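Morning, I've got a small favour to ask if you have a moment. I've been staring at a protein lately and its backbone has me curious. You're getting the sequence in one-letter code plus the fold written as tokens. I've dropped the whole record in just underneath, so have a look:
=====
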Amino acid sequence: MFSVVPVLTVAADGLPIVGDWAGTLDPGAQPKKRVLVHISAAQDGTLSGTIDYPDQDTSGIQITAITYKEPALHFESSSALASYDGTMNKDHSTIAGAWKQGGTSLSLILKRAS
């Protein structure tokens, strides 16, 4: 006699962090800089992503390390010498945190992009 036991799995795209996120860096005396962060997940749940700077016509900068343990997000890009540590809100619509690049730390709120 065989029995079938359903196995519950969490689809990688069911992670609240997966998607496109947009924010604006305000370095004060310098022009503001828009940042787009694209986060995706493999079938095994491994996260990956890229960063775009639309105001500088730069896109596809590889995120070299990324971790998400709700509600905390951390990622870094070695080629951009940048890192971000943020906390997602309860409805998964914004991430508030600190963007660090070139020895400077700036506040950055990422909002889910449509």
